[in-house]
Design a protein that fits this description.
The complex is a heterotrimer of chains A (514), B (644) and C (100). Helix content of chain A is 74%, strand content 4%. Chain A has 514 residues and is mainly alpha-helical. Chain A has a domain of 243 residues. With 644 residues, chain B is mostly helical. Chain B has 26 helices and four strands. With 100 residues, chain C is mainly α. In chain C, helix 1 runs antiparallel to helix 2 and helix 2 runs antiparallel to helix 3. The longest helix of chain C is centred in the C-terminal third of the chain and has 30 residues. The chains are: A mainly alpha (514), B mainly alpha (644), C mainly alpha (100). At the A-B interface, helix 7, helix 13, helix 15, helix 16 and helix 17 of A face strand 1, helix 5, helix 6 and helix 25 of B.
Chain lengths: 514, 644, 100
């Protein structure tokens, strides 16, 4: 096959990275002391991160093809392979996942006291599952990883979560499962239409009739839209984020919800180009609604974590907006914004977790004026606040600017409306910041002082701060990975498959309706 | 490379202070920041020399964002307009930094103050030095951020925290338009670099955009969107509401950011984009009208305010209005000229009022800004009084001082600008009358008459220390002499040196007026300046009971002005409250909690209800299950037999 | 030589007795015995058919059934004892915790 470049390293690097965490989970099963378990987990996650560094240096940016590919027969009679590889889109998410994996272990050092072993095993298993999703190039493999990730997350929320954790966990599980099952049906249909193969690359080059594309697109859309989450199916997210332990929220916000948007990129767009063009408009409109709706709803939040959770809805609205603008600025901005959102929201959840350990409250009104008590904390929180509202010089700006530029290219009104979200974004984040850090010190902290960040916490946050400014001032490091992959994707979508003329008719009817 | 150092030095100072200030540097923070900004000033003078010699410096450092056909660099353009701004920014910053050493001494956030100020200078320098729109936007947002930090510097005060947030959010409304304008520029020109956009501007004249079925001139749309940003940053109607509140910040901040530099960024930006604006008469007229109306609108409010800093703040809004008026009339260099003189006399006014507040602060340990509690200060603070008088003479346009030349040039350009221009000239001249009145009112209320505070505080009144008064004196020199580079040709051949200097960038606007008309305009300006002075003198020195009488007589008018036309309340009622209430009651309360969650929780509830019925089959009686099983087996066997 | 039909009839009778017992008796032990009876009825017919068709398959299946029956009896009795410890009764009607 010419679409792939086999792994040229002397060892199967991707398999190593993917399965290292789960091997680590097996290892810590034999450990007894909580302290050992914590350090062992930390060691495993860091080892996985280091193991991935060759991907950074050996990545070939001059091609859009899949790289570091490993391809073995698995169930030959059904055309199922163990087929993994990465391209310029997925490589960034590998690193994001590995980084947030390390940080979520670090932040849990003090906060998790019960069932320490199970907690860390869940985190490691989840890391494997998420990495697996990003490298899989075979649908069965992909689906297994996709669903595996549900279980540890379900446990993280349901066991170590807040007061309403069981409801949140079940809601999260069922919500995502319903979407995924529709996708499973879609996969089966694609399997039979695409010549009995589950090879994602092969299926991407199959030309499906338009009506099949539409149905399949909708089936996949169900799974991905829930995971993103897009506008009307977002309500699991505030509950899950709010109830999850800090590490859970970080992973959930940081990488898990990226899998939905990644799904659009990897499957929906190349496999169903005509349906993508057809559905671009409704999705753009849903994205606009999500941006503004998510932002406005933040103004009414009284819970620290809930606010950040709803802000994720708004930010992920930007992501889908960028992706479905279907031009290079929108797509690159969208992908970059996925990474950015992982960094920023991950960091914000880390920060909330850090202060929650000290105050044991998530109610915004219980804070106030703590900037004098915890100046470093306040300063770092400010950095992430600014990144969240997209101030130039931070990573949030690059992503949002490219997205709005792309959206504006797609349609002027869409671009204008999306920019509105930025105004409200500033309003709710600054409002939060004022309520938490400014004004008079809340009387409950006068007697027992709040300690400022300790070294471990600073180390946890430092990589994210560096990334905020790195991407803000020199995004090319990250954008350069995706240029060719995005270009190729756009070509695939634009080339379309059969039924373009039919599609043109549909779109005409659709736009006429507006 | 030395040009890069101009913004870089303050940035380094910021980084050092913010990282090490709290633990190590503490009250020595000025030793980091002040030398940095003075070095920047020296380098800026160097740049000025280079540019004066005819160089235009355009350096690209590296590619910032590359995506598809979009490419924007981090790069600097230093031309004649830039160096004027560089000199204004760095010189005034240097003086205000030194002033702050005395003014902020003993504040627990001393290091933070200097860190933010340094960051501000960095941002402002980036703003003026950028060679493309996106980097301009970077500086634009960054100065807004510093303004947010510094307005809310004393963030334990709710009002300060609110004011900072308000400034940021209101500015975001402007930036919303500004950002879209930048995007539209890119989509129209395919680049964001000044040197590629401006020369190509002519080629897109006549291009139109389709907005909701209307064909609209592209250039006009671009210019109006850009102007949105200027309206926000320079506090023009209708986004002027944040600037008066911004006076919650320390006085050096008000002087540097909210008078001399940041708020003039809008003027700078429009002047920078003059090749675009001149192509769109609609946009130019909009700019001129907004400027003219703001000038008089803000001046009327300033008439009745009692907070010393707010009076000056409204005066700033009004003066910014003049600048936009000039821009809109095509007199770009006149606008920059006024920007430059205004920076000196307005910074001086603020710093001098800061000196007053500082004195009262020492006396009472409480920031007193209410002029009704002042009075008679001239005998305690002679230097402050003197520089205040000089600044006031300058702002009111007394011949020979800085403000006179620049304001007169604006009014004269307006007068020559057709019917609209005549109308705006009338507005401007009326505003000048009001300016003279409220400026002198301020002086009379503050420095003349008897001290109206407590005896206790009177005993502590004394002149501020030299670290405060020396910068005041330097600025006073500026307030007097800054205008001498722009003497109109009427008095002196080649007197308008700044106009000539800027002409390569801003073009040369020609006048079509006779000498007689010019003398008429000039005379009117001088007359209103003296007239306003005279009225203020009568009302506050000769017959101190008069203000109260007039107030009683025109009660509704006074209330209207005193409450700033209720614009804040209007925004609160129409935008802020509906948004907050709507968010809580409608979006969260109904859409999210009822409709969406209704469906989400409703489906499982339905299934549950169904299964509650279905489970009745499970009786729990053992033999019943056996019977069903047996019957089932029988039925299966029966059907198999009969169907065969 | 006994004809095949006799075996089948015997098997049917035994099966019916087992079924009847299973349905009407309330003592769990008896119900168990009835189940065993039904299994053995099946065994009878399996062996009979095996002999009649001269095929060893039927008898192999019988061994399976016997094994399964033994296992089932073991598990069933274990459950029964465990249950008896919680609720001192072996009456089937008393066991209705699974009532919907």
């Amino acid at each position: 096959m010419e679409e792939i470049i086999l792994n040229k390293l002397s060892y199967p690097i991707l398999s190593l990275i993917v399965f290292l965490p789960v091997l680590g989970a097996l290892l810590i099963m034999f450990l007894k002391k909580a302290r050992h378990i914590r350090w062992a987990t930390l060691f495993v996650t860091i080892a996985a991160f280091i193991a991935a560094l060759p991907l950074w240096s050996h990545f070939d940016k001059t091609t859009y093809k899949m790289q570091f590919v490993e391809l073995y027969h698995w169930i030959p009679s059904m055309g199922i392979n163990y087929f993994i590889g990465i391209d310029g889109i997925s490589v960034l998410f590998i690193f994001l996942t590995l980084l947030l994996g390390v940080l979520s272990v670090l932040v849990s050092f003090r906060s998790i006291e019960t069932k320490v072993k199970e907690f860390h095993m869940s985190i490691l298993v989840m890391e494997t599952a998420i990495l697996g999703v990003f490298v899989s190039l075979d649908f069965l493999l992909f689906y297994i990883f996709w669903e595996t990730m549900l279980i540890p997350m379900f446990l993280l929320i349901g066991v170590w979560g807040g007061s309403n954790r069981v409801y949140a966990a079940i809601k999260f599980f069922l919500y995502t499962l319903v979407g995924s099952l529709l996708m499973l049906v879609g996969i089966v249909v694609a399997y039979f239409y695409g010549g009995q193969t589950l090879n994602i690359l092969a299926l991407s080059s199959v030309q499906y009739p338009l009506h099949i594309q539409v149905w399949l697109f909708m089936a996949f859309f169900a799974a991905f839209a829930v995971k993103v989450p897009m506008f009307p199916v977002h309500t699991w997210l505030p509950d899950a984020h709010t109830e999850a332990p800090t590490a859970g929220s970080v992973i959930l916000a940081g990488v898990l919800i990226k899998m939905g948007a990644y799904g659009f990129l990897r499957f929906s767009m190349p496999m169903f180009p005509d349906a993508t063009v057809l559905f671009a408009w409704p999705i753009l409109i849903l994205s606009i609604i999500a941006i503004i709706y998510g932002a406005v709803i933040c103004l009414a939040q009284k819970d620290f974590k809930r606010l950040i959770a709803y802000s994720s809805v708004s930010h992920m609205g930007f992501v889908t907006l960028g992706l479905f603008a279907l031009n290079s600025q929108g797509l690159e901005g969208g992908i970059l914004q996925m990474v950015n959102h992982g960094i920023i929201t991950g960091a914000l959840f880390l920060m909330v977790g850090i202060i929650y350990e000290r105050t044991h409250t998530r109610v915004i009104a219980d804070y106030g004026g703590i900037a004098h008590a915890v100046p470093w904390y306040a300063g770092i929180f400010m950095i992430f606040t600014l990144a969240s509202i997209g101030l130039p010089g931070t990573n949030g700006f690059i992503g949002e600017f490219l997205i709005i530029l792309g959206a504006f290219k797609a349609h002027m009104i869409i671009g204008v409306l999306s920019a509105l979200g930025i105004i409200i974004g500033a309003a709710y984040m600054l409002r939060l910041y004022q309520q938490v850090f400014f004004e008079k010190l809340n009387s409950s902290y006068e007697n027992h002082p709040l300690p400022d960040l300790n070294l471990r916490e600073v180390i946890t946050l430092l990589p994210l701060i560096v990334l905020v400014f790195w991407i803000g001032f020199y995004p090319e490091t990250f954008l350069s990975y995706m240029h060719l992959s995005v270009e190729n994707l756009i070509q695939q979508v634009n080339a379309g498959s059969g039924g373009r003329h039919l599609l043109a008719e549909y779109i005409k009817i659709f736009r006429g309706a507006f | 490379m030395k040009y890069v150092l101009i913004p870089l030095l303050p940035l380094i100072a910021f980084a050092i202070n913010i990282l090490f200030g709290r633990k190590y540097i503490k009250d020595k923070a000025h030793w980091v920041s002040v030398p940095a900004v003075i070095m920047s000033f020296i380098l800026a003078v160097g740049a000025f020399m280079d540019v004066k010699a005819g160089k235009v410096i355009n350096i690209n450092l590296y590619d910032w964002i590359v995506s598809g056909n979009f490419n924007v660099t981090i790069g600097f353009l230093i031309d004649r307009l830039t160096v004027v701004m560089l000199l204004v920014v760095t010189s005034i910053s240097s003086l205000i930094f030194i002033y702050s050493v005395g003014y902020m001494r003993g504040d627990k956030g001393y290091y933070r103050f200097f860190a933010y100020l340094s960051l501000f200078v960095f941002s402002m320098l980036i703003l003026v030095m950028a060679n493309n729109f996106l980097l301009l936007y970077f500086g634009w947002e960054a100065v807004g951020l510093c303004s947010y930090f510094l307005i809310g510097f004393w963030f334990d005060r709710k009002s300060a925290a609110n004011a900072g947030k308000k400034a940021f959010v209101v500015n975001r409304f402007g930036d919303f338009g500004f950002g879209l304008g930048i995007i539209l520029i890119f989509l129209t020109f395919g680049s964001l670099e000044y040197l590629q956009v401006f020369p190509g501007a002519h080629s897109i004249v006549g291009q139109t955009l389709n907005i909701f079925g209307h064909e609209v001139d592209t250039i006009t749309v671009i210019c109006l969107l850009l102007f949105c940003g200027a309206v926000g940053k320079s506090a023009q109607i209708p986004l002027h509401v944040w600037l008066p509140d911004a006076m919650e910040g320390p006085t050096p901040v008000s002087a540097l950011i909210h008078a001399a530099t940041m708020v003039t960024a809008g003027v700078f930006m429009v002047a920078r984009c003059n090749p675009l604006f001149v192509l769109s008469p609609v946009a130019m007229n909009t700019v001129a009208v907004v400027g003219g109306v703001t000038a008089i609108f803000a001046a009327t409010i300033a008439l009745v305010q009692n907070d010393i800093k707010r009076v000056i703040a409204y005066s700033t809004v009004s003066q910014l209005g003049y600048m936009f008026l000039a821009l809109g009339m095509g007199a770009f260099s006149a606008a920059i000229f006024h920007l430059y003189t205004h920076a000196y006399f307005k910074a001086l006014l603020f710093l001098a009022s800061g000196s007053v507040i500082h004195a009262l602060h020492h006396a009472k340990h409480d920031d007193e800004q209410n002029m009704q509690k002042m009075g008679g200060l001239r005998k305690y603070m002679p230097i402050t009084y003197l520089v205040f008088i000089l600044a006031t003479l300058s702002i009111t346009g007394i011949p020979g001082l800085a403000g006179f030349f620049s304001k007169d040039e604006i009014l004269w350009r307006a007068y020559m600008g057709g019917n609209l221009g005549k109308f705006l000239w009338f507005l401007g001249t009326t505003a000048a009358l009001l300016t003279a009145f409220y400026s002198w009112r301020l002086i009379y209320m503050t420095f003349h008459g008897k001290f109206r505070g407590t005896q206790e505080s009177e005993r502590h009144l004394r002149e501020s220390s030299p670290v405060i008064t020396v910068p005041l004196m330097f600025l006073a020199v500026g307030a007097v002499a800054a205008g001498w580079v722009g003497i109109p040709p009427l008095f002196m051949e080649h007197g308008d040196r700044i106009g000539a200097f800027l002409a390569p960038v801003l073009g040369h606007s020609e006048g079509h007026g006779t000498h007689a008309e010019e003398f008429m305009v000039l005379g009117a300006s001088i007359a209103v300046a003296l007239g306003g002075w005279f009225i203020a003198h009568r009302m506050y020195i000769k017959r101190p009971e008069l203000p109260q009488k007039i107030m009683d007589k025109f009660q509704p008018v006074h209330r209207l002005l005193f409450n700033k036309y209720w614009v804040d309340e209007l925004y609160d009622k129409t935008i802020v409250q509906p948004l907050l209430k709507g968010s809580e009651k409608v979006i969260l309360g109904i859409v999210d909690a009822k409709i969406i969650e209704g469906v989400v929780n409703g489906v499982p509830a339905l299934i549950g209800a169904f299964s509650r019925r279905l489970r009745r089959i499970q009786t729990g009686i053992f033999s019943y299950y056996g019977l069903v099983m047996a019957l089932g087996a029988l039925i299966i066997i029966g059907t198999m037999i009969f169907l065969k | 030589m006994v004809p095949l039909s006799w075996y089948i009839v015997l098997s049917a009778i035994v099966f019916s007795i087992g079924m009847f017992g299973f349905l009407v008796r309330r003592n769990l032990i008896i119900i168990f015995l009835s189940i065993e009876l039904m299994l053995n009825a099946v065994n009878i017919s399996l062996v009979a058919f095996s002999h009649y068709l001269q095929s060893i398959n039927g008898q192999i299946l019988v061994f399976f059934v016997i094994t399964v029956a033994a296992a089932e009896a073991a598990i069933g009795l274990a459950i029964l004892i465990a249950f008896y410890r919680n609720k001192p009764t072996v009456e089937a009607d008393e066991i209705n915790l699974l009532k919907g």
